[in-house]
Automatic annotation (TrEMBL):
Any one of the GO BP annotations: methylation
Pfam families with a match to the protein in the record: Methyltransf_11
Organism the protein comes from: Rhodococcus jostii
Keywords carried by this UniProt record: Methyltransferase, Transferase
Name the UniProt record assigns to this protein: Mycofactocin oligosaccharide methyltransferase MftM
Sequence ranges assigned to domain Methyltransferase type in this UniProt record: 131-222
SUPFAM superfamilies, per database record: S-adenosyl-L-methionine-dependent methyltransferases
MF term (GO), any: methyltransferase activity
């Protein structure tokens, strides 16, 4: 997941009141009881919840998405809501994020998370060292680091890499981070054995997507692994701006002039050999 916040970028590690987090026009508050509720009051969005630390994980993405009944609910509000849920549930910035990361990784590794089959397949496909494009929270890089691989996580948002840098040591994991545009990665040619772009291309237009693939091929020594969701309509609140199917992935593979494979597994996959 990438971000294009309309409001100024927020600091996910900034101090906040116990049980209350706000950014711009979004306020998230933990209450004693009740369901996850999103309501508007003029130009303000108020979110209330009664989550516990055990509830904090990536599965909240599905819960928040299911709670949205507002066509104007954009990616900035979605991301503000997600950060607010984490920060208002556990006191202390690093403590809250460590809980969120640990729970999420456990669910991704034991197969209970919705995204678990995608990360499992990505881990099977990578070879040697890995540079991951558009890492966002960095769950895949952390998984690969846990498996003993040399990993570099990248993202265009400095805040996500700062967060990953802070939390990884708390989880006993070691990886590198790099702030950059996925179409312009400041590393030499053939810097990693595998370059991954997992659920990234749906966030960018066709021209930028082609540039991302070109850059991935420049950086990769062995292969490039791409995964995208198959959607009938792009999910705007997640920042998706285009959809894919097998023919479009095949066309993208053909455009590289390299050997490639396209297959379906909880979405679409394109594996390009260098």
């Amino acid at each position: 997941m990438t971000s294009t916040l309309d409001t100024p970028p927020f600091n996910s590690l900034a101090p906040c009141e116990s049980g209350l987090w706000s950014h711009g026009h979004v306020t998230v508050e933990r209450v004693a009881a009740g369901p996850l509720t999103l309501t508007r009051d003029g130009d303000q969005l108020r979110v209330t919840h009664a989550l516990t630390p055990e509830d904090l994980s990536e599965r909240l993405v599905a819960s928040v998405t299911a709670s949205i009944e507002d066509a104007d609910f954009g990616q900035d509000e979605f991301e503000s809501t997600m950060v607010g849920l984490v920060r208002s549930t556990v006191d202390g910035a690093l403590e809250a994020w460590t809980v969120y990361y640990r729970n999420s990784l456990n669910e991704l590794l034991d197969g209970t998370a919705d995204f678990a089959p995608i990360h499992e397949k990505a881990e099977q496909l990578v070879r040697g060292s890995v540079l991951d494009l558009g890492s966002c929270f960095g769950f895949l890089p952390l998984r690969l680091a846990r498996a003993g691989r040399s990993v570099t996580a990248t993202d265009i948002l400095p805040g996500t890499m700062t967060l990953l840098d802070a939390v990884a040591p708390e989880l006993g994991l070691d990886l590198r981070t790099l702030v950059c545009d996925a179409a312009h990665v400041p590393v030499p040619d053939n810097s990693a054995d595998t370059v991954t772009a997992i659920h990234l291309l749906e966030h960018v237009d066709e021209n930028i997507g082609a540039a991302v693939i070109s850059e991935a091929l420049r950086v990769a020594r062995d292969r490039v692994v791409v995964a995208v969701p198959y959607e009938d309509e792009a999910t705007a609140c997640h920042g998706h701006i285009r959809t894919f199917d097998t023919p479009s992935l095949t066309k993208l593979g053909e455009s590289t002039g390299r050997p490639f494979e396209v297959f379906e597994h909880h979405g679409g996959w394109l594996v390009i050999d260098c």
